[in-house]
Amino acid sequence: MIASVLVVVGIVLWAVLARAVAPRQNTSQDKFDVLIVLGYPADADGNPSPTEQARVSEAVQEYYRGVAPRMILTGAAAHNQFVEARVMARTAEAQGIPVGAIVEETHAMNTIENACDSLQLMHDHGWQSAEVVTSPSHAPRAAMIFSKLPVKWRMHPAPPLGPESSLTAAGKTTTEILKTIYYLLWTRQSKPCQIQ
Question: What sections of 22-159 are H helices per DSSP?
């Protein structure tokens, strides 16, 4: 019993440490070919959830700051019937982003697929570098995934649009620690992205 508890505690500590030391970038550049906005589920009515809205709004600000001239919005209908990339595209367009500056990636069902499918789109367009926009709690695990890809990248956390309760923040962090454990134990050994 004690040994089992110690193993679980050890695995949790491993995930927490891995998140703490995860790289946040592999380049010092401050201009990129593209912004990649990682998906998050829309609400039950197909409107952008607060997390999704925060990610898109931050990417829009980065676009207007001149960080990149275009954005890939990535995410399928992974958690409900609404395609995350399409909801995010509507949101970005409503904030003034030209349709021609938006590329929708509508097949990714998880963060690894977000990264791999975005990498394929980058390859197809000849883009070499990306700033990746996601939530602060998601950024460490996303960074672990992007660190395995042959692309110049930087994580850019999108702060929440309003204050979050400590319970909400703790819930997001706990969920991300559990997903990090899954990534470290099972999926990081899987094949890297297959670019065609």
Answer: 50-64, 84-94, 111-125, 139-146
Question: Tens of pLDDT along 166-190?
Answer: 888 899 999 999 999 999 998 876 7
Q: Is the pTM of this model over 0.90?
A: yes
User: Residue 195: inside a domain, yes or no?
Assistant: no
The CA-CA-CA angle for residues 119, 95, 157, to 5°, reads 50
Place of tokens 């990534």: 183
Q: What CATH number is attached to the domain comprising 98?
A: 3.40.50.620
Domain housing 123: 31-164
Beta bridge partners of 105: 74
Taking only the tens place, the pLDDT of each residue in 19-71 is: 999 999 999 999 999 999 999 999 999 999 999 999 999 999 999 999 999 99
On whether the CB atoms of residues 77 and 39 are closer than 8 A, the answer is no
Structural domain count of the chain: 1
